[in-house]
Design brief:
The protein has 193 residues and is α/β, with parallel strands linked by helices. The protein contains 6 helices and 13 strands. The chain is 26% helix and 33% strand. It has a 7-stranded mixed sheet with strand order 2-1-3-4-13-12-11. Strands 6-5-7-10 form a 4-stranded mixed sheet. It is globular.
């Protein structure tokens, strides 16, 4: 069973639909016991970091998430919340990934929205995909800086972490649930960890 964490900042419905297409048993829940007992956990997210972290703290999920031993996948805002900190509201985050989340600054439109390509992909999320697997779907104004835990890179005004991994924690800045066949394979790879 996969638990999709419901913390009020999510694209839980689209992640649920994507897992249903893969015939994966899952539940959307904010119950710490359900999340703790799940085989895998997905932290989706659309929105702002500061209120999202506050809501996780109110639910007692901040401490739970960092203690999880099963595979965990953060998506978009869910990825950013797993980083050390965010410039968005100067927010302290969960600290799984040792990198900062910064705002895009430059000549191109913000948010970075639409299809963009992945580079330097490695690790089990990208199994059975080519080294440069094609375009995936992004929508974000903030990005995680490239760091030692970066497992895929994208370029928009500068290189940034498109995916991260630390032990059992995985994360994607892009939305695999909205990224066609490439995203479906990435989600499938996560479900089979």
């Amino acid at each position: 069973m996969i638990a999709i964490v419901d913390y009020g900042a999510g694209n839980t419905g689209s992640v649920s639909n994507a897992l249903s297409r893969l015939s994966c048993k899952h539940v959307i829940s904010a119950d710490p016991e359900v999340i703790r007992k799940a085989d895998k956990v997905i932290i989706p997210g659309v929105g702002a970091a500061a209120p999202a972290i506050l809501h996780l703290e109110e639910l007692g999920l901040d401490r739970l998430i960092v203690s999880l031993q099963q595979p965990v996948l953060g998506i978009c805002l869910g990825m950013q919340l797993l980083c050390r900190s965010s410039e968005e509201g100067t927010t302290g985050c969960l600290g799984i990934f040792d990198t900062e989340v910064r705002r895009f600054r430059g000549a191109l439109p913000v948010p970075h929205m639409g299809w963009n390509s992945l580079k330097q992909c490695r690790g089990p999320l990208f199994a059975d995909l080519p080294d440069e697997p094609g375009d995936v779907y992004f929508v974000h104004s903030f990005y995680a800086a490239v760091c030692r835990q970066t497992i895929a890179v994208c370029n928009y005004m500068q290189p940034f972490s498109a995916a991260l991994q630390q032990d059992n924690f995985f994360a994607t800045q892009f939305h695999p649930e909205k990224s066609g066949s490439t995203g479906a394979l990435i989600l499938k790879n996560f479900t089979e960890l």
